[in-house]
Each structure stands twice: as C-alpha cells, then as structure tokens.
Design brief:
Blueprint lengths: L7 H14 L4 H4 L4 E4 L2 H6 L12 H16 L3 E5 L15 H11 L7 E7 L2 E8 L7 E2 L2 E6 L2 E4 L2 H11 L18 H12 L4 H7 L3 H8 L10 H7 L8 E6 L8 E3 L6 H15 L2 E3 L9 E3 L3 H14 L8 E6 L2 E7 L21 H9 L9 H10 L7 E5 L3 E7 L5 H8 L10 H10 L7 H8 L3 H12 L2 E2 L2 E2 L1 E3 L11 E3 L1 H7 L10 H15 L4 H8 L3 H11 L8 E3 L11 E3 L5 H6 L1
Parallel strand pairs: 1-2, 8-12
Antiparallel strand pairs: 2-4, 3-4, 5-6, 6-7, 8-9, 10-11, 12-13, 13-15, 14-15, 16-17, 18-19, 20-21
Length: 595
C-alpha cells in the first residue's frame, strides 16, 4: 500500500485502505469522496461455478464509469473496487486496469480519464480508481450524476455549473453588475448608516458618519471598473426589480397571513430592515423577575439568533436563482428558506464548527462590514448558543429538495430555572461559552457524559470535548463545581461527568432521570450498561439520586420477571460490595451489538 503520491485523493485512499486492513467496514470508511465497490462482474456471477473471473466485462465497466463520473462531477473522488461496501471484506477483482481506464474514457464521451492502480489487501487484488475533478459536466449513458452525501443522484447542468463555479473560487457577488453607483437608493444608505451606528463599535459609528462616496468605498461595493459589484447592487439598489425577501406572519400553522411583506421595489438592505422590524413587533417578550438587566426581558426567539439566521440566508443563498428568501413567523417559530443548497464543502453534520463556506464571499464580507453578520464562521454558533441556553431546541438547519436550505428557530417562554443556572455560573463568561451551554443541555437529558459522547454534540474531536469537560470542572454554580466525575470512572483516563450537587439540586425538577420511577430511567440504565457492561447499586444511587435501598430493589426487579429480565446478576451470590448486574436475556440486542 505504498503506491500513493502527494495528492489529497490518494491520501484519502491510503487512509481508507489502512482502516480496511484493520477490520473497518466499508460503510465506516466511505464518505462523500470515497466509495467501496464490489467488482460488478463478480457480484453478478456469484454462486456460479467460475474457474476464472473475467478480466474484461462491459457491464462492470459501465457501472464503474457511472460511479467514477459521479465522483468527478462532485469535485473528484476515489473508488475502491473489490471490497464489499457493507462488511469491508476484500472480495478482489481481476479487471485489467488499463482496459478499464480506456472503457471509462469511452463511456464518458472521452471526458474522464481516471488513474487506476492495483493494490493488494489481505491477499486480495483491488483496484483504486481515482476520478479527478470534472472541468465540464460528465455524462454516462446520457445522464449526469453528482454526489449528495454518500449517494449519486442526477443533476441538471445549471445546478452543476453553479456548484462548479464555487469549487473553483468564482464569486458571483464580486462580479461587476453594470449598475452605476448613482442608482444607489438614498433609503438604502440611511439603513446602512443605521446598522453601523447601532453596532456599538466605535469604528462602525465612525463609518456611519462618512459621506456617501467614502461609505461606498469603505464598504467595498464599488468594482474596480467603477460600477457596483453584484453584491452592492443587491444591497443598495432596486435594480433586481423582484421580491428579494418574502415575509409572512401567522398566529398558528395553517392560519391566514396577518402580515405579508413582499416588495419588489426595495433593496436587500431595506427589505431586511423591514422584515427585522416586523419580526420584532410580533416577537413576544417574557419578563423574568429577579434576572440580571441583561436577560430580564427575553424575546420568544432571541434577537441575536433572528439576525444571524436572516444574515446567513442572504449571504449564503444562490443569487443566480430568481426565487426570494422566504421568511415565515408562525406562533413562536421562525422558518427561513433560502434558494440553493449548502455551499460546496459544507458538512451538514458539523455546521457549528466547520470553517465558514459561502458561495458569496464578497457579499458576506460587506454584511460583516455593515455589522449585520457576525465575523466569519461564528454565526451558526451564535444561533445555537442564543436558543439552547434558554432551554429552546437547537436550530434545525437542513438542505431540502429544490434545492434550498431551511433554517427553523423554535422559541417560546424561557426555561427560567435553566436561565438562572446559566447566569449564575462563575466565571460569568461561561454564559457566552457555547461548549458549556451544550454540555449543560446534554446533562439535562442524560445522567452522565464522556468526552466521546460529548464530542458528537459539540461537533468536535474527543480531545477538544475533554478540554471542555476540564473547563466545566473548574466552573462553579452555587459555590460547587458545575460538573463532577462519576465515582466509577473518576480514575479513568477518559472519565464520565455528571452535574455537581448544587447544579443537580437546582435543576432537579426538570431532570428526566433524577429521582424518577423505574420506568422513567430504564433507557438511561440501558445506556449505562451498554457503556460499562454492568451496573452496581452505587452507580444507580449516584446517577438517579435515590436511596441505596430503592436502588437495590429496582435492580432486583429489572433482573426478574417484572422487569422483563433486562438485567441478570453478575455473580452468585450477588451480594456485598462486588454485587453488580449485567445484560440479561431481555436486554435490547442492538445495544448488545454496540457494546
């Protein structure tokens, strides 16, 4: 496996081969850039009495050409041929690499030349097919496909070209619009000055007082050719002559629109301000007695989250599409739909931590200069923090067919008990710490977390999650540590953490696992046994805040007929300090498989 050279796709293949050699499944190593494929010829002929597997097979070549073209249309990728995609077991291939390279070239209408090299894995011959990024849309049998997550789906030429331009660094928003600066609307300039003046930043306030030519220059909306950039024309003129933001307010789902804002004669800045004001009028306020002045009056949907969601929709949408950004405010839920899918390179599973990617860098930069958007890369963070620390669900940001991106912010009255905990943390800056906010939210749902389980929630690596837990251990509430290590894992290299006594006592009425009945905590018992292989009386007491006698009774019941034999004694006699329970006949089989 030393065939690799300095190439990202080759390094990707090398990493996958090493993982497969170590026993990883095909599913585990696959990604949007790598796919494991059984030799289609062998798969088709499996079960027959074959003395020699084919070295040339047109059906196999066609299937591999389609897969390679799909990868090429998606920015390039790797096929590992001769591996079962589910198990990762090498089944091998006898296909000739030079013949296959030529057939893929012919089947792709002479548009795709792949690098194909044989390697050996656990005694089986495989082929590594590296499809380079396509410079024009590649079709096989008249159909063009591209990669969406781990699937190949058909793509039209317009969508592919838009994504390809982003991949190669083309920024539509920075191109000359042909619109003169004289077309700038005075009302748009007033709005721009208002955003700058209200930013609270000295430089923003100073810029708000600049004369118009200086303001336009410093905002960067003038193209070197002397006309407005496309972003400048969108933000400051009505040259688009179409609805840019379509806002509707409803009291309940399915209700009539109480307010509809869909002007076609305004600039984006004017439309944005109008929509923000309409949302503010409908966004009810909850008064929290005794809270600090900073959080005493709280909107159903935090204003910071609203601003970031709107700014993201404007900055990241596909402006080559004629559809407007649709904003619906229904009861206490704000839904924003923007045309175009996620920008190239955006990982939907890591929206909080992924480096900022936008198809409109110039437009995003102007919005930051106007202090409308947060600095690059933390807008989604802010949406999460503003909502979750008040007890609301995290934002739902998904790509839907069309394609378009849907961002849903669900608000309502704040969780006052949680709010008092968050504002009572020491040091106070922990209130602004998203990782701490997400940790607290996780511990409101489950009795204990580890660096590994927290990493998935934070969308970070386990080492970073461990640092968050260390930081939380040094954070206090009510004079006690916010979190503490569980007794069982206190000496582990990667311990588990639960709420400290003061935090747990404060949140006790809202914790679904603390001092609740057996039926209410069974799922947490299953998760604990899945992680540790057993549970002791002392574990149950610590996790669920009950007496030792009650814990002993519940565990015996779970090991008996009444508890469905979920557990069984770990030793006989199961008595004394070493008494414990392990999975019983009624333990969920899928949880046993994961242990």
């Amino acid at each position: 496996m030393s065939f690799l050279r300095e190439d990202p796709l080759r390094r990707l293949a090398e990493t996958a081969l090493q993982a497969l050699a170590s026993g990883a499944s095909g599913d585990a190593v696959e990604s949007d850039q790598l796919d494991c494929k059984e030799d289609p010829a062998r798969a088709r002929l499996k079960g027959r009495n074959i003395t020699q597997w084919p070295t040339r097979d047109d059906e196999a070549a066609l299937m591999l050409a389609e897969a390679a073209a799909c990868m090429a249309n998606s920015g390039g990728g790797v096929l590992i041929v001769g591996v079962a995609d589910k198990t990762g077991q090498p089944s091998g291939t006898n296909l000739e690499e030079s013949w296959l390279r030529g057939r893929i070239y012919e089947l792709s209408e002479r548009r795709l030349t792949c690098a194909i090299e044989p390697v050996h894995l656990l005694g089986a011959r495989l082929l590594i097919v590296i499809a380079p990024p396509a410079q024009e849309l590649i079709r096989v049998r008249g159909k063009a496909r591209h990669r969406v997550d781990r699937c190949c789906v058909e793509v039209d030429a317009g969508t592919w070209v838009a994504r390809h331009l982003v991949r190669i660094g083309y920024d539509w928003s920075a191109q000359p619009s042909g619109v003169s600066p004289e077309a700038v609307r005075p009302a748009a300039i007033v709005v721009a000055r208002r955003y700058l003046a209200s930013s609270g930043e000295p430089r923003g306030e100073e810029l708000s007082d600049a004369d118009e030519p200086e303001l336009l220059r410093r905002l960067g909306v003038i193209h070197p050719s002397g006309v407005l950039s496309n972003a400048g024309a969108l933000l400051l003129t009505s040259h688009a002559d179409q609805v840019l933001i379509d806002y509707r307010r409803r009291d309940h789902p399915g209700g009539d629109s109480l307010i509809r804002l869909d002007h076609s004669d305004l600039s984006v800045l004017e439309s944005l301000q109008e929509v923000e004001q309409a949302i503010a009028q409908a966004n009810r306020v909850t008064h929290v007695p005794g809270a600090s002045l900073a959080v005493g009056q709280i909107r159903a949907i935090p204003e910071g989250a609203v601003r970031e969601a709107l700014a993201n929709a404007i900055a990241h949408r596909d402006w080559t599409c004629q559809d407007p950004v649709i904003v619906e405010f229904v009861a206490d839920e704000l839904i924003i739909q923007s045309p175009g899918g996620f920008a190239e390179g955006v990982d939907p599973a890591r929206l909080i931590t992924a480096p900022a990617q936008t198809r409109n860098p110039h437009l995003a930069d102007i919005l930051r200069r106007l202090r409308i958007a947060e600095r690059e890369g933390i807008g989604v963070d802010r949406m999460y923090r503003e909502l979750v620390r008040l007890g609301h669900p995290a934002p739902e940001i998904v790509e839907l067919p069309g394609p378009h991106v849907r961002c849903a912010l669900v608000g309502g009255a704040p969780d006052v008990r949680l709010l008092r905990l968050m504002t009572g943390l020491e040091p106070p800056r922990r209130y602004e710490d998203l990782d701490i906010v997400l940790l607290v939210d996780a511990l409101r749902r489950t009795p204990a977390v580890s660096a590994t389980s927290l990493a998935a929630i934070l969308q970070k690596e386990p080492e970073e999650a461990a640092a968050t837990l260390t930081r939380a251990e040094a954070t206090t509430f009510g004079g006690a540590p916010l979190v503490t290590r569980t007794a069982r894992t206190a000496r582990y290299r990667r311990p588990e953490f639960r709420f400290g006594e003061a935090a747990r006592g404060h949140l006790q009425p809202d914790l679904p696992y603390y001092r609740h009945s057996r039926e209410e905590v069974i799922e947490h018992v299953i998760e604990y046994v899945q992680r540790h292989g057993q549970i002791k009386n002392s574990d149950y007491v610590e996790l669920f805040g009950v007496s030792s006698a009650y814990a002993s009774t519940v565990l015996r019941e779970l090991a008996g007929l009444e508890g469905g034999h979920l557990l069984q004694p770990g030793r006989e006699p199961n008595m004394g300090r070493f008494a414990h329970y392990v999975p019983g006949p009624g333990f969920p089989p899928d949880k046993l498989d994961q242990h």
